[in-house]
Amino acid sequence: MATGAYHKYRALLSQLKDLISRGPDDSLEAEELRDQMDPLWFQLSESERAEINKNVKLPKVA
Q1: Which of 22, 12, 20, 28 lies closest to 59, judged by CA?
Q2: Which pTM was predicted?
Q3: What is the predicted pLDDT for the residue at 61?
Q4: Which of 8, 12, 37, 61 has its CA 20 to 30 A from that of 29?
Q5: What value does the CA radius of gyration of the chain take, rounded to a whole number of Å?
Q6: Contact between residue 52 and residue 44 where contact means Cβ atoms under 8 Å apart
Q7: CA angle, 20 as apex, 18 and 62 as ends, to 5°?
Q8: pLDDT number for residue 56
Q9: What is the pLDDT of residue 24?
Q10: pLDDT digits over 9-49, tens only?
């Protein structure tokens, strides 16, 4: 069962992705979202982290 931290993290992640799609990912607003997300990450279970990470698209390394 997903925790409140999971739902909050997913909501913030969605906001962050939307913000990044509209501009640079190092804006003050983006950093503030990340600051809110950091403590939530450590409250997530291993399975919740895996669920979030399975949808992460990492850039290709040259």
Answers
A1: 20
A2: 0.83
A3: 77
A4: 61
A5: 12
A6: yes
A7: 130
A8: 78
A9: 80
A10: 999 999 999 998 888 878 899 999 999 999 999 999 999 99
Largest CA distance in the chain: 39
Distances in whole angstroms, Cα of residue 34 to Cα of each of 11, 14, 17, 61, 62: 12, 11, 11, 23, 26
What count of other Cβ atoms lies within 10 Å of the Cβ of residue 16?
A: 19
Per-residue pLDDT, 41: 96
Rounded distance, CA 5 to CA 12, Å? 10
Spatial separation of the C-alpha atoms in residues 18 and 58, rounded to whole Å: 17
Residue 4, both tokens: 């409140």
Q: Which amino acid would we find at residue 51?
A: E
Cα separation, 61 vs 41, whole angstroms? 25
